[in-house]
Amino acid sequence: MVDVSITGILIDHTELKAVTGDSYPVTLEYLDKTTTVVATVVRCEGSRISFHFPETLSDGKLEPPESLMQVYRELEMDWLKERIS
User: Fold this and answer.
1) pTM, full prediction
2) What is the DSSP string of 15-34?
3) What DSSP designation does 46 have?
């Protein structure tokens, strides 16, 4: 994983031959939090693949699933702790 946000993920993967529009189930795990969401490929550049989590948006509003929010919050808190320390 290169980067993650509440609406998607960027990975660097040499074996996955993804095409824009493909969808995959993606499981995110961090500490004791786990969630599986559908991720749709939005861009492929070399070995880097950008995915969007469609279920994070509802009628144009950000409404991610609670399980995704829990994983993301834990990641964000640890990231912030590292930057502040």
Assistant:
1) 0.86
2) S----TT-EEEEEEEETTEE
3) T
